[in-house]
Amino acid sequence: MGFLHEHGKQIASTNPLERLNREIGRRADVVGLFPHQTAARRLVGAVLMEYSHDGAAFSRRNFRQTFMEKLYRAANAPERLPDGERQHD
């Protein structure tokens, strides 16, 4: 993958994701059997919304602000074509 070495620890760690999956599984066990797929989606959506509203997802900053700003600028920059190529509409 194209990640910087300095960010390897944060990227390699899946603990927050595993914790979230366990929470979804725990709540699904309480419900038992879902009548249809939409009900399962609602449960997962509710858990994710609760997780984001609690600030658990943002309690720790994994990347430096300057690095995140560089990523944002790169993601929002217009795509550059190689010399001699033109964009077709």
From TrEMBL:
Gene Ontology annotations of biological process type: DNA transposition
One GO MF term: transposase activity
Alphabetized Pfam families for the sequence: Transposase_mut
UniProt keyword Coiled coil present: no
Alphabetic keyword roster: DNA recombination, DNA-binding, Transposition
Protein task: Required for the transposition of the insertion element.
The family this protein is said to belong to: Belongs to the transposase mutator family.
Name of the protein described by the UniProt record: Mutator family transposase
Lineage, broadest ranks: Bacteria, Bacillati, Bacillota, Clostridia, Eubacteriales
